[in-house]
Amino acid sequence: MRRYGKNPDEDDIRSRPNPRGSRPRTHIRPKHEDAAEGMVLTVDRGRLTCLVEDRTVVAMKARELGRKAAVVGDRVGLVGDLSGRKDTLARIVRIEPRTSVLRRTADDDDPYERVIVANADQLAIVTALADPEPRPRLIDRALVAAYDGGLEPLLVLTKSDLAPAEPLLETYRPLGLRYVVTRRDELADGGAERVRAHLEDRTTAFVGHSGVGKTTLVNALVAKERHRVTGGVNAVTGRGRHTTVSALALPLAGAAGWVVDTPGIRSFGLAHVDPSRVILAFPDLVDGTEDCPRACSHDEPDCALDAWVADGHADAARLYSLRRLLEVRERHEGD
């Protein structure tokens, strides 16, 4: 089919302007020096709720950030509508450098790491003493993730009215962990003050498998209007039911500080962990590694740590604890 006449001239021909002609591509990104500072409180399907001064603002990530994702706890720069009114949307244009990261992988063979929380000071590892039964290997894995990510661990044992805490505490005593033991009745009565004492002026991420009372504990630490839905334990499987589906940062009631409630976990992959970072949590053993062979796993015949302990520089229980944590990367979660 002929589109033009027999003798078309320039006026007869319609040309489309180059869509990029008036806006040449550039690698120069706007600096957004006037961006407001905010903190990411939660992420839901690409929308990020951020705290900007004293109000919450819903935002989305700017295209110029590429694949860099913001997570709960990130300090960010925002532009656009920062009023916080309904149906408004701001834009995150900058993610500040992180002081710490809590990461995990789906399993030990998964190379893709997931950042759960950024910029937390400590990791509260919540474990029930019964109903459901404690899983020491999951505690070990959370400890490794804390040491690798730069967070100070805090062991929180719940439901001490159902089982004694001492047998489990004995396992972790050589690590010198801070810990707190709680009962169900004291949380129901508005207690948890002993837990709160460890959280003031800090940002604390709470992790634990479903049913251990993690969200119940978080609810006891934050204002009533910020409470989250809680669940129980499945009577057939003995495992908890997932009720928290996304991480959420909440202000600590009655004191300065933040608590981050995270979804219940049933696995904690450590494929991303560099074993050389874990030993940094054992300062009494670090100097003993100077004579270790290159790329020493610290659990082999030529490891210099055995001689270091034998010479009295460190307790043998500490070396055993280090090796247990390093070995847990090779174990299955259900052990």
Summarize the model shown.
This protein is of the alpha/beta class. Helix content is 19%, strand content 23%. The chain has helices at 136-149, 166-172, 184-188, 193-196, 214-221, 275-278, 283-286, 305-310, 316-327, and strands at residues 36-44, 47-52, 55-61, 75-80, 90-95, 101-105, 113-118, 122-128, 152-158, 178-181, 203-207, 248-251, 258-261.
Give an account of the 3D structure.
The protein contains nine helices and 13 strands. The chain is globular. It is of the alpha/beta class and 335 residues long. It has helices at residues 136-149, 166-172, 184-188, 193-196, 214-221, 275-278, 283-286, 305-310, 316-327, and strands at residues 36-44, 47-52, 55-61, 75-80, 90-95, 101-105, 113-118, 122-128, 152-158, 178-181, 203-207, 248-251, 258-261. Helices cover 19% and strands 23% of the residues. The strands form three sheets. It has a six-stranded mixed beta sheet.
Question: Which secondary structure elements does this structure contain, and how are they paired or packed?
Answer:
Layout: E1 36-44, E2 47-52, E3 55-61, E4 75-80, E5 90-95, E6 101-105, E7 113-118, E8 122-128, H1 136-149, E9 152-158, H2 166-172, E10 178-181, H3 184-188, H4 193-196, E11 203-207, H5 214-221, E12 248-251, E13 258-261, H6 275-278, H7 283-286, H8 305-310, H9 316-327
Parallel strand pairs: 3-5, 8-9, 8-11, 9-10, 11-13
Antiparallel strand pairs: 1-2, 1-4, 2-3, 4-5, 6-7, 12-13
